[in-house]
């Protein structure tokens, strides 16, 4: 087995390799003067089971291109099996036609990864489980919920927890976390506009008064969804709001927004390498995802069960 890395999240790739007690494959993934991506593998990979770790996070297109070219280089170097490990799978939110004459970019990206030569895919908390079906190769979708639940339980001190989905679309994810927290009760933030152009109204489904709320979502991008939901919960009488998000996209002024929000704490995993600003923000904490990904890789290589990681 070999672990190769693109440049999108080298600390995570090193941590995964460390978990597996392997060195990273000796390769260079660099740019020509005109910014074309060039990949050179400096060791023999013929007949090897190779896992390429590359989140397709910002700069999304550059990181995606690096992944595709790494896979191409491995295929031409006769690797036996190539697994694209995309801890964060960019373009996942474009998983359906959002209007007339719009693309389904997540499907296009799945086609690109497959055509480049990947034999399998390993991702974490895909925005929608159905994205697995965009690939006609085996695709494992890992859940960060066990990592989050362990963190929440280690800090809860017997508080009255309530798991909250920041929108109706995230209820399945929230319910799965609630189950891991001794069947904690569930609430939902329901966003509505009475008519086009009127301002958004946040209705809370569930009684959050006096509760320590755990907001859960897959992605924090601009921070709008989360910070507005946190404010609505506090306005409704919640004792505190802590948020657990798998993918800290944190674009634009999201870190400042979180810092100024009603959130007590934002906990993210490092599927995307956190920026220095995010690392230094007192309200943001990062929990490592490498042990989960490393264990899944070990099991894929050993041909043992991955799903039992989540029993
Ligand atoms: C949406 O369906 C996702 O699950 C997130 O809620 C969304 O991407 C968050 O975006 P933002 O932080 O920009 O509100």
Secondary structure tally: strands: 14
Please give the radius of gyration in angstroms.
Answer: 20 Å
- Cα-to-Cα separation, first versus last residue: 26 Å
Give the DSSP E fraction (strand runs of 2 or more residues). Answer: 25-35%
Q: Treating each run of at least 4 consecutive H or I residues as one helix, how many helices?
A: 9
Number of folding domains? 2
Q: State the low-pLDDT regions, or none.
A: none
Task: Explain the overall architecture.
This protein is an alpha/beta fold. It has 2 domains: 161 residues, Rossmann fold; 144 residues, 3-Layer(aba) Sandwich (Rossmann fold), CATH 3.40.50.2020. The chain has 9 helices and 14 strands. Helix 6 links the parallel strand 11 and strand 12. The longest helix has 17 residues. The structure holds ribose-5-phosphate. Ribose-5-phosphate (R5P) binds next to strand 11 and helix 6.
Give descriptors for this structure.
311 residues, seven-stranded mixed β-sheet, Rossmann fold, 2 domains, binds ribose-5-phosphate, 9 helices, 31% helix, single chain, alpha/beta
Short recap of the structure:
The chain is an alpha/beta fold. Helices cover 31% and strands 25% of the residues.
